[in-house]
Prior knowledge:
This protein has eleven helices and 13 strands. The chain is α/β, with parallel strands linked by helices. It has two domains: 205 residues, 3-Layer(aba) Sandwich (Rossmann fold); 146 residues, Rossmann fold, CATH 3.40.50. The strands form three sheets. A seven-stranded mixed β-sheet has the order 3-2-1-4-5-10-11, sandwiched between helices. Strand 10 and strand 11 form a beta hairpin.
Amino acid sequence: MIGNVIVGQSGGPTAVINSSLAGVYQTAKERGAQKVYGMLHGIKGLIDGLYVDLDTKIKTDMDIDLLKRTPSSFLGSCRYKLPEVTEDEEVYEKIFRQLNNLDVKYFFYIGGNDSMDTIKKLSDYAETKGSDIRFIGVPKTIDNDLAITDHTPGFGSAAKFIASTTKEIIRDGLVYDYPTISIVEIMGRNAGWLTAAAALARGEDCEGVDLIYLPEKVFDIDHFIDKVSDLAGQNRSLVIALSEGIKVADGRYVFELADHVDVVDAFGHKQLSGSAKFLSDKIAAELGVHTRDIEFSTLQRCAAHMSSRVDITEAYNVGGAAVKAAFEGDTGKVVVLKRISDDPYMCITEIADVHKIANIEKKVPLEWITDDDYVTQDMINYIHPLIQAELSPIMVDGLPRHLNINRDVH
């Protein structure tokens, strides 16, 4: 099918999302695409007529190499929820008018759960209107909460950063001759995959974190205080990893127990922050122990200096697999990763129906969470292969060099 390609990025950025963009771009060009357009700021940008011809931005093999190593979303991102067609069909008409004007026949969207909702709605609309445009989702999210796929690109590098930085926090806390308690708050709204990665810090050279709390289990504050009191009473310095999304029995997030301001995005997601601060202050007040709260916040998303080569390679591969699927006739699908071997580690790409992925959260299995506030070896074995090897940044004048888009738009 003759026609052009368009690709966009949506949701939170990662250290390897641009490797998927490189995979889409290179594979599309190799398969004969005349034009590969990039949406600026995702589907919202396309609605507003913001796009670029990627040939004017990616000109050399060095640009591709830099793009793979550049963190965050090269094309910009958005958190825009497409309305239902019954609510506002005009939005869809505008999108398809833009695509037809650009002679686009292949649409790729790199993102997480909410982005797959966009692919679902657009592919469904195309089917009802008899459009021949093909829509494919390219998985991305550090939260690792997409259904069906073994894991998502972006997760491995974030897990590598979390485990590495946690080791350094543990080393820091052990220098004092009195106990300190460090509470590390890690991203993961309703799924604890990222927080579980802190368990990888434990090894021959590191004592590891002492406690891990994931949102899949109800958080009992009294139990938590008692546990910390017991461990601190052994004159130990403690490091505790917890998810930003932990909730108490009545369904409230822990951070909501303190004074806070609700900030909600287009998908109704609250901005989560402050659980570590609340618990740190509570421990200091009740136990009289020196405490420190540490929020990894956005640092864990785009730490390209700590990226996993496995992650970068898989991110590139899912971009290429998406193009292959679309050019061979698929639409309304998402590329997924299927693990076929742990030793040696091997993963292949497959295609799954977007309706079985969009708006479905994959959570940590309860059997991988222990009763003594930790995770099992199965969890560690699952994450461990995903953090392997490195792709060092290209350093210029002592700092990583990134590819930065010049936002000239039509």
